Amino acid sequence: MVSIPSASQFDTAQSRVGLATAVVLPCYNEAATIAHVVASFADALPGAVIYVFDNNSSDDTARVAERAGAIVIRETRQGKGHVVRRMFAEVDADIYVMADGDGTYAAADAPMLVKALVERRLDMVVGTRRGVRQDAGRSGHAIGNRLFNGVFQWMFGDDFSDIFSGYRVFSRRFAKTFPAVSRGFEIETEMSVHASQLMLPVAEIETDYGVRPEGSVSKLRTFHDGFRILSVFFLLLKETRPAFFFGGIAGLLTLASLAFGLPVVAEYLETGLVPRFPTAILAAALMIIASMSAICGLILDSVSRSRVELKRMFLLTQRGLPTP
Asked: What does the record give as EC number (predicted)?
C-alpha cells in the first residue's frame, strides 16, 4: 500500500529538489465545481501554480476559476485534445499534474502521484480510477471502458489498465515531446500509445474516483465518442505498428483468395478446365492485393522505426527530473 504524503511533506520535497509544479485543468462548463477543484489542489500541492484551460465554456467557469486563484487560459478550438496541446505548449514546469475540472478526481491523491514520479524517476504516472470498471457514471461507459481497455492491450501491450483516466502526472520531457494530434477525449489513448511506443518509464497508481456533484453534467457521448476512440485506435495502430496492421489486412485477403481460388484449382485438377473464370480472376486479384499490403506493411514498418528513433533522440535532448 502506497502512503500518501501530506501537503507539508510534498512542499519540503519540492523545495529540496527545486521542482516547478503546475496543475493543469481542462474545463468546459464546470462553473459548479471548478472553485472547489482549484482550492483542493492548492491545499494538496502548496507552491504549485494552478492553470485552468477554459474550452469555450458558456457558463461562468473562467470567472469562477480566476476568483478561486487560478490562472485562466482560453482555448477556442473545441475538444480536450486541443486543450492538452495548448497547455503543454504554454506552461513551462518540471512536473505537470493533469486532472479534470469536474471534481471526480481526488486532489488529495496528487502528492502520492507526484512523489512516485520524482522518487522513481518516471515520465508519466496514471491515477487509475478505483471501481471505474463497475460504474463509470453510466453502465454504457463502464462496459465501454472494459472493452476499450481490452482492445488497447491487444493492440499495444499491457502497460496500462485504465487508458481513459484523465488524472495523470507528467515529467517535463514527456510534456514537451508529446505530439498531441488528437482533438477530443481520445487524447488519453494517444498519451498511452506514445509512452508505450517510446518505452518510457511509467506507473499506474489506484486513486479514488468520485461522482459528479449535482449541477455538473458529463460531456461524454457514449456512441459518438466511442466510435471516435475506436477510429483512433486503428489510426494509431497503422502509424505505430504498420507491419501488424497491414499484415492483418494481408492475412484476411489471403484467406478470401484461398476460399475463392481453391475450389477453382481443385476443379481444374479434376477436369483440366476453368469454367468459373471470373472467380479465378477474383482470387488472383485478392492474392495480389494481399501481397501488396504485406509489402507496404514491411516498408512502413521501417519508416515507423525511424520515426521512433527520432522521437527518442529528441526526448533525450529535453531536461529530465533533477537528481534528488
From this structure: 2.4.-.-
